[in-house]
Amino acid sequence: MRIRVIGGGLAGPEAALTAARFGCDVDLYEMRAMVDGKPRLTPAHQTLEFGELVCSNSLKSESPHTTPWLLKQEMRRAGSALLRIADETAVPAGHALAVDRVEFSRRISRAIDAEPRIRVIREEVTRLDPGAGLTIIATGPLTSPALSAEIERLTGSGHLAFYDSISPIVDAESIDMSRVYFAARWDKGTADYINCPMDREEYDRFVDALLAAEPGESKEWEKLEYFEGCLPIEVLGRRGRDTLRFGPMKPVGLRDPRTGRTPHAVVQLRKENLRADSYNLVGFQNHLKFGEQARVLRLIPGLENARFLRYGQIHRNTYICAPALLDDCLRFRREPRLMVAGQLCGVEGYTESIATGLLAGLNAASIARGEEPVAIPRATALGSLVHYITHADAKDFQPANITFDLLEPLDEETRRRIRDKKERHRAQCERALAAFDAWWAGRSEVRSSHQHRSQELPV
């Protein structure tokens, strides 16, 4: 049985490569294509490559016993193809896993091209026929209007939507290095971030300019419903004078080595690639007109003459009401031959999207062999994430990153015994990895395939 995967972002390629690794033939559909000699793209994409990162280039923390680290550890143990590529294309980013976005997507595309079980079809899918075979829908936050309408028709349920923004990128050569310093927060990891310090006067001047800046255009019928975990800086600025200082401009742990003091506020810049010829403004997603962005952001110390390689932008993120629609194997309850993965199913973040693609690929491979997929345990990080999106209150459902709040709490006896918060988190992580290992070992078909199929990917 051929498996159809729709979407060439992060979840789709991970699902396709995973299913192929376990012996399944896959048709991978992607609507971005060359049409009459010109690339047909989405509003947020700039290339035809698979796995293109349109926002940040970070897959979050690699600090042991954090939830982003835990989720990635589970994915590594399951042989995630995209996470392996992320490790191979990593750029220095302190304690975070950040990638060279161009090389990352290039290697994903090469891995797909080199997989004989995957057939790439460059066309938009507008119809879903459950009777035609097993399908994984991983079209992400920019699911086309036609396919969105088709999903709505099949499920009888509307979509929820929020709006996500893209951070600006500056040319490294245009940064005034005499006004900035390299440091990692609390000296944790290597000092790979450029820090632009502000005193109170500079911060106030920046906030005044930000609040007065003219926003980008929005269609009148669009209601801007931002995701709380990815708010534009101008929205944060309107919530209070010091909100930015407790958010993306938080100076805590970023002592200026030149003065020995902690600045009033700090803007951090993170490398975009290994060449370190461009940097993105961490957490500075926004929805301002391009000219206004240049004017406001050049008030940041060190960026007075910044050349912007990409301005911040806004795009619509679409996701389904997963608690009302999906089971714990990511299948539509009413149409179990249709599965959903990635941001469309209600997870937020690159790592979370790849993880659900991995799980969908594993489950689809089991179904293709005529077996019932085994739900991932609630005690794991990935199981906790899936449990949240499939059991949350449907009326107030919002996408989620992996956090300790989603993991099962420790039992009362353990909580009494372990008072330290970090040690409790360590215990939760150890319990999750033990549960994941037991689940993985119990999948005899996965273990057999894992032993007889090389996991090396082309570079």
Summarize the SSE layout with pairings.
Layout: E1 3-6, H1 11-21, E2 26-29, E3 33-35, E4 38-40, E5 58-61, H2 67-77, H3 81-88, E6 90-91, E7 96-99, H4 101-114, E8 118-121, E9 134-137, H5 145-155, E10 160-166, E11 169-171, E12 181-182, E13 194-198, H6 200-212, H7 233-238, E14 265-271, E15 278-281, H8 290-297, E16 308-310, E17 313-319, H9 322-325, E18 338-340, H10 350-368, H11 381-391, H12 412-417, H13 421-442, H14 444-452
Parallel strand pairs: 1-2, 1-9, 2-8, 9-18
Antiparallel strand pairs: 3-4, 5-7, 6-7, 10-17, 11-15, 11-16, 12-13, 13-14, 14-15
3D shape:
globular
CATH superfamily of the largest domain: FAD/NAD(P)-binding domain
* CA gyration radius, whole angstroms: 22 Å
> Portion of residues in helices?
25-40%
Number of helices: 14
Description:
The protein is α+β, with helices and mostly antiparallel strands. The chain folds into two domains: 266 residues, FAD/NAD(P)-binding domain, CATH 3.50.50.60; 151 residues, Elongation Factor Tu (Ef-tu), domain 3. 33% of the residues lie in helices and 16% in strands. The protein is built from 14 helices and 18 strands. The strands form five sheets. Strands 12-13-14-15-11-16 form a six-stranded antiparallel β-sheet. Helix 1 runs parallel beside helix 10, helix 2 packs parallel to helix 10 and helix 2 packs parallel to helix 13. It starts with a strand and ends in a 7-residue tail after the last helix.
Quickly list its features:
14 helices; six-stranded antiparallel beta sheet; 459 residues; FAD/NAD(P)-binding domain; Elongation Factor Tu (Ef-tu), domain 3; five-stranded parallel beta sheet; alpha+beta; 18 strands
